[in-house]
Specification:
This protein is α+β, with helices and mostly antiparallel strands and 159 residues long. 41% of the residues lie in helices and 11% in strands. It has one domain: VSR Endonuclease (Endonuclease, Chain A, 3-Layer(aba) Sandwich). The chain is built from six helices and four strands.
């Protein structure tokens, strides 16, 4: 059980009864947003594959179901969407105009969950890498280089 120092963030239900609203156009646009196989994720995966690195996708047995898993190296990679995971959050939070009562707790809970998953994975002996979608889009080669730096076998402390 996780001990929440600040308390677990509660996200309200997104419904008109709760005071939230959306337009049909916005609803249609939001329905197109993917949670897996996003363009930045595919870019990173293809670049790693082209360099000969083999991996598994979304191992549900691991906390947070990482996007890319290198079991042999105990390395997991997450590709985080800038909006959904709070990139430059303090600056962006003030710019939210509609449904702030939903979006602020929603994104802050995502950030809290990311931290919890990182801590749990690290306590299990995994190395965790997280990349922002904008970093992958702008600096793919350096993101691949960071992953490659961590593709070394963990030392066995028993021998």
């Amino acid at each position: 059980m996780i001990d929440y120092k600040e308390g677990k963030i509660k996200v309200p239900r997104f419904s008109e009864a709760e005071g939230f609203y959306t337009t049909p156009e916005k609803s249609r646009a939001m329905s197109k947003i993917r949670s897996k196989d996003t363009k930045p994720e595919l870019l990173l995966r293809r670049a790693l594959w082209a360099k000969g690195h083999r991996y598994r996708l979304r191992d549900k047995r691991l906390p947070g179901s990482p996007d890319i898993v290198f079991r042999k190296y105990k390395l997991v990679v997450f590709v985080d969407g800038d909006f959904w995971h709070g990139y430059d959050w303090e600056a962006k939070k003030g710019k939210l105009k509609t449904n702030r009562g939903f979006w602020i707790p929603k994104i802050e809970r995502n950030m809290q969950r990311d931290k919890e998953n990182n801590e749990e994975l690290e306590s299990m002996g995994w190395k965790v890498l997280r990349f922002w979608e904008s970093s992958i889009n702008k600096e793919l080669d350096s993101c691949v280089a960071v992953v490659e730096e961590h593709l070394v076998l963990p030392t066995n402390k028993n021998h």
